[in-house]
Design goal:
Structural class: alpha+beta
Number of domains: 1
Largest sheet: 5 strands, antiparallel
Radius of gyration: 20 Å
Number of strands: 7
Number of helices: 2
Strand content: 25-35%
Order of helices and strands: EEEHEEHEE
Strand order of the largest sheet: 6-3-4-5-7
Helix content: 10-25%
Shape: globular
């Protein structure tokens, strides 16, 4: 940058950069909510998630995923339960908030609308 005929060093700042994450609460740990898919991870894949990702969907975790974890969005409007693929460590953090990677599909855990839905 040139100021007053002299070259000045240019300093740039990142302002207002926001990571795209979804914050959820881990509501895992209730064994009375079951699925007909064989596992919640299979449920996630069958009902919208598609091919399983290579790692846990927590925003900074790179561990292998092992579980389809039941979560709720941190939202006043949406109190539905969803499935997210997580590693063993994040699956075990019941009651904790987690930041999930942008682009991760939250698949409904409501079996009456998915694998338990009556076709006719």
């Amino acid at each position: 940058m040139v100021i007053g005929g002299k070259v000045q060093p240019c300093i740039t700042f990142a302002v207002g950069i926001k990571e795209n994450v979804v914050r959820v609460n881990n509501v895992n740990g209730t064994s009375d909510n079951t699925c007909k898919c064989g596992s919640w991870l299979e449920h996630w894949s069958k009902f919208g998630g598609g091919i399983l990702p290579p790692s846990c969907r927590e925003k900074v975790c790179t561990k292998n995923l092992e579980f389809g974890t039941r979560v709720q969005k941190e939202s006043f409007k949406d109190k539905g339960w969803y499935i997210v693929p997580l590693c063993k460590d994040h699956n075990g953090q019941t009651g904790k908030s987690l930041d999930i990677m942008d682009g991760t599909t939250l698949v409904s855990a409501d079996v009456s609308q998915t694998c338990g839905k009556k076709l006719f």
